[in-house]
């Protein structure tokens, strides 16, 4: 165990480490793409002598990403990106592995913010962010900590929205790679990862059947597509609500009913919000919901379901099962919220499957290396993941599955590159 990591860390209980090691060992065995990258990093040491600060949902798969970055020579500090997604046993295990950890399950808001700031006060050279909390602190409260940072990578839609707002206003002070927008992220993580992990969490938390009920999916981006697809597979009738007319047409052609939330609210047994926006379920919707409606959120922040307006309509609020709050409304109806309206798949579950996060975290690791290799020339802007990195992750994934594909011949390449000879 690293004495320095132990001295600098704040975790709940180091006695939990053994269980955390078992969790990390399990995901390591199911993350072959990251294993391949770890071998490269161990040989090349791309982060030798550098400090890396990570803010992600702190569970076993994230822990293994931290160990892969550490294997590349970095001194790693990690904190959570959501109060309910941190797993204390994983935190303790990481400390034993020499990673500085500043995180506990369900800290109060002040403590949660303090962990983020402390992680930045290590003066990292590179960062990995999830939801934009690190970047927001750097650009608002602690710009003094920007000096050492070469750049970083952002995990999710919400964070990219915040980054692009900074960039649009000319305020962004470092290069950040938009990992969420890579093909190997949104096509697989957002769709298959979110689709499965949301319903895993709903099922294990409620112990109720989905088949034969109506699921309302709020938002039909890539996460919404996955949630709707899995709900259909579980036997639910699916309604989609959207503000984007193109996505609404797509949902219709995918076989789902499409209607405004004011109408969908009357029909839903389960509601899943996946918009990245605020107040998509509000008072007017609670007023018409069925008795027993179950609501959850799979967007990054707990603002999609307006709990203030729900509370104002409640005569009583109580916790009826772990991660289930019952709001009894003044007319006698009951509405339930899972995981306090926070990310349900991590607040009430283990997050995406290991094989899915294998690809996403491979993108994170390789994007971090890309920023470190190029930070002096790329400037302060939001960058797409380079296509060659995206494709390399896909190749590693195919190799791990034992799948081979065709390659273009030189004649085919020449044909595609030419504007003549297409008769």
Describe this structure in words.
This protein has 2 domains: 3-185 and 352-401, Adenosylhomocysteinase-like (Rossmann fold); 192-347, Rossmann fold. The protein is built from 18 helices and 15 strands. The chain has helices at residues 3-8, 17-28, 32-44, 60-71, 88-96, 109-120, 133-140, 157-168, 183-206, 222-233, 245-253, 261-264, 283-286, 307-312, 344-347, 354-378, 387-401, 410-417; strands at 51-55, 75-79, 100-102, 126-129, 151-154, 176-178, 214-218, 237-241, 257-258, 270-273, 293-297, 314-321, 324-329, 334-338, 382-384. The strands form 2 sheets. An 8-stranded mixed β-sheet has the order 9-8-7-10-11-14-13-12. A 7-stranded parallel β-sheet has the order 3-2-1-4-5-6-15, sandwiched between helices. The longest helix has 25 residues, at 354-378. It is globular, with a radius of gyration of 22 Å. The model has no long low-confidence stretch (mean pLDDT 96).
């Amino acid at each position: 165990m690293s004495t320095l990591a132990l001295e600098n860390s704040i975790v709940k209980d180091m006695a939990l480490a053994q269980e955390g090691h078992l969790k990390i060992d399990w995901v390591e065995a199911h993350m072959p793409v990251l294993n391949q990258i770890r071998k490269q990093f161990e040989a090349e040491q791309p982060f030798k002598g550098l400090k890396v600060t990570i803010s992600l949902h702190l569970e076993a798969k994230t822990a293994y990403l931290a160990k892969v970055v550490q294997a590349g020579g970095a001194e790693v500090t990690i904190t959570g990106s959501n109060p309910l997604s941190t797993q204390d046993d994983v935190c303790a295990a990481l400390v034993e592995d020499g990673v500085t950890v500043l995180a506990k399950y369900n800290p109060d808001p002040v403590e949660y913010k303090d962990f983020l700031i402390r992680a930045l006060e290590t003066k990292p050279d590179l960062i990995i962010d999830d939801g934009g909390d690190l970047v927001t602190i750097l650009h608002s409260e602690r710009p003094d900590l920007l000096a050492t940072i070469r750049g970083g990578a952002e995990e999710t839609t919400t964070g990219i929205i915040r980054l692009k707002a900074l960039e649009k206003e000319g305020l962004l002070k470092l290069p950040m790679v938009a990992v969420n927008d890579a093909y190997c992220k949104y096509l697989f993580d957002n769709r298959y990862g979110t689709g499965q992990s949301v319903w895993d969490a709903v099922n294990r938390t409620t112990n109720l059947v989905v088949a034969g009920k109506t699921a309302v999916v709020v938002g039909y981006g890539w996460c919404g597509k996955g949630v709707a697809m899995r709900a259909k597979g579980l036997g639910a009738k699916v309604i989609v609500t959207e503000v984007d007319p193109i996505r609404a047409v797509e949902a219709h052609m995918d076989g789902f009913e499409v209607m405004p939330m004011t109408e969908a609210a009357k029909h839903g047994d389960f509601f899943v919000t996946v918009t990245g926006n605020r107040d998509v379920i509000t008072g007017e919707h609670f007023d018409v919901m069925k008795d027993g409606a179950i609501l959850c959120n799979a967007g990054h922040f707990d603002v999609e379901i307006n709990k203030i307006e729900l509370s104002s309509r409640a005569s009583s609020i109580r916790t009826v099962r772990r991660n289930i709050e019952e709001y009894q409304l003044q007319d006698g109806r009951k509405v339930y919220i899972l995981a306090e309206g926070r990310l349900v798949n991590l607040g009430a579950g283990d997050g995406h499957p290991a094989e899915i996060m294998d690809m996403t975290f491979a993108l994170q690791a390789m994007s971090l290396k890309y920023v470190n290799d190029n930070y002096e020339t790329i400037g302060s802007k939001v960058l797409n993941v380079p296509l060659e990195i995206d494709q390399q992750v896909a190749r590693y994934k195919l190799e791990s599955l034992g799948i081979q594909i065709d390659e273009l011949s030189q004649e085919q390449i020449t044909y595609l590159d030419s504007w003549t000879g297409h008769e």
